[in-house]
Write a structure and sequence with these properties.
The protein is about 15% helix and about 50% strand. Strands 1, 2, 3, 4, 5, 6, 7 and 8 form an 8-stranded antiparallel β-sheet that branches. It is globular.
Length: about 140
């Protein structure tokens, strides 16, 4: 009986019946995109921080609604100079950091500090909508 179960399990696995998560070796082979595709951002508002906090120069506290279309990607980017807090309002998207990935769903939050270098992909069938708040340093 045990051999039959193993045989059927092997056959089903060979046929792709069992879904397997991406393993680090596979993720490491996915080249991070250098250009975004299917991304739209609507600025909700900004507050200049220099009048609010001394020594913060040209920084703004910025809020946006960011939409990642199905099949879309946010290109690889760093938060070294732009800490961010995001909330997944609708849909889901997968974040890639190095050789790891994590899928975020509606209601999840994402924190990106100075050591965060990541990219995103929406493999779903509906747009992923984020409310994104960051400390932004606009070009002068």
């Amino acid at each position: 009986m045990k051999r039959r179960v193993l045989a059927w399990g092997g056959l089903l696995a060979a046929m792709g019946i069992f879904a397997t998560p991406l393993i680090p070796e596979v993720i490491a082979q996915i080249a991070p995109p250098t250009e975004s595709k299917g991304v739209a951002a609507k600025l909700i508002g900004t507050i200049p921080l220099a009048p609010e906090i001394s020594g913060i120069d040209n920084r703004q506290l910025r809020m946006r609604v960011v939409t990642l279309a199905p099949g879309g990607v946010f290109a690889v980017h760093s938060h070294a100079d732009r800490p961010s807090v995001e909330y997944v309002l609708k849909g889901q998207a997968t974040e890639y950091i190095g050789d790891t990935s994590k899928t975020y769903n509606e209601g999840d939050s994402v924190l990106a500090g100075k050591n965060t270098v990541h990219w995103w992909r929406n493999d779903g069938t509906e747009p992923a909508i984020f409310v994104a708040v960051d400390v932004f340093n606009p070009p002068k």
